[in-house]
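mind reviewing these tokens:
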Amino acid sequence: MLLASAAGTAFSQTAGATGNDAWVERNFDFAAPALNFRGLVPKDAKVETVAMPAMAPQTIGNVKIVGKVMSGKLGPGKGGLQVETTIVGYNLQAPGAASRLCAFEAQASGYATRAASVTRDLTEARLLANQRMKGAPQSTSASYCFSRANQALAVHFVAGAEGTETAEVADARARQVEAYARSFIQGMKFSDGASPSLGHDLQTVPLRIGDTQTQLRVLNGWDIPINDFRGSLPAELHLRQRKNGKDVGLVWLSMFDAKQKPDLDRAGVAIVKDYFGKQSADVQAPVLLSSKDDPLLAQRGIAARTFRFSVRNRQGVDAGEIDATVAWRDGRVHVLTLWSAWKSEGGRNSFFSRLPGLTVYDSVYQDVLNKLP
């Protein structure tokens, strides 16, 4: 399982007929209109559901296992595979990027990502992962996550290893799980008839870059102290999230001309440190934690580096982290950064506090960097 169920949860149960040579339709009712769906399951599968509780006041959200599906064996003989499907519901303080939810749950459960994809609007994500123990395959998973405005749904398909396996057997098992997951997901229809989305409570931020006009769609609750993208460069955009009178998130987009490709590793570190040093006199210089090529932009032939920095205030107290992407394309440098007051290693509460900032960062990345020609 990718998530532990709350102790004492009472599931309602329905059992299908025996045999798994056909799939039948089931209603998945979680007493949450945005999360309920109808879907196909094997005839012999046992389906369990439970109501999704309302979000408690003064909280950042809640997470609950709201459904399980246990299939019969897939495939003939002893090599048949049993897949456990776990359905997780989320109530969130703000809409969240589906890919971030999938990646967090996999990592938190000790799974290493093999492949991942996300729709351009960030509302649907797929993640394939493996869990290993002492180098040997232990289990394989396929996860699908869906944004539903301030709620979200994740469906995790997991099959464990049976004894010692070769890499070839593990790969075959992974393909079986993926095929099973695709059949389940392709049969899903949300009961409210709405497509996955970040909701309608978004603000539009206009950017003009040369003769190109772009309309960013970012979460409400972020103010815009600076936006001087009016055609000419250099230009920058600042987005800021505040809580209880304090800054807790800053997203910065900057562009400037550079005819020659700079050393992105060295230039990126210098740019981020210079920018952040100007935002507050109460912080030390950010400390670089990691630097690597951006895999998504690299696939498109765009030179880009991603960075992570830790931040401390003048008293040496943790003051969050900075994530950054620096890209160069056709004589222009693009810089995108996110400072969050919470650290990425802070566990579940920290992740859900960071999620609105990560979602805004990903939205700007998709609408600007991932649209570079």
